[in-house]
Amino acid sequence: MNTFVIFLRAVNVSGKNLIKMADLKDMLLKEGFTNVQTYIQSGNIILQSESNTDETRDKLTTLFVQHFNLDITCFALTEAELMAARDGNPFDSNLPGNRVFITFLSSKINDSERTEINKLQFPAEEFLCTEKHIYYYLPNGAANAKLSNSFFEKKLKIKATGRNINTVNKMLNLLAKTTK
Description:
Alpha-Beta Plaits; DUF1697 domain-containing protein; 4-stranded antiparallel beta sheet; DUF1697; single chain; 8 strands; alpha+beta; 180 residues
């Protein structure tokens, strides 16, 4: 059995792609996933699957269309992948966890794309684009920030979803309890 952290893109945001986590959990259990846990309303899931990462992600995408009539991009990560993403954070670990974000990308970014996007600068806001993630720090919070998942999706023409460091750490803590 494989354990995954699933991040759903753009679920329960601004009144769009509304899914109740209780309904989601029930559907996943009925579809054969086990040890399903959700965390807050923004599409954070831990589950176990007999399938590999790609098969699990693809099955989830299909199930969202079938059960909720929603085309939701799913990001399936192993514990090691989520830890590596968190540990790759270039920002000071003492910064507020709700102001430092990791954006997970649906495909890898090549060297020339990374070089170009990393040249961009925004006063007060900082970011670093790597091959599979974008890390950014918003000292004044996300509400009026220039940097966001939407910004990076448009610039890179890619699907992405982001979580703040607090959420990433919470998911790793829940995952540790699940795999014991």
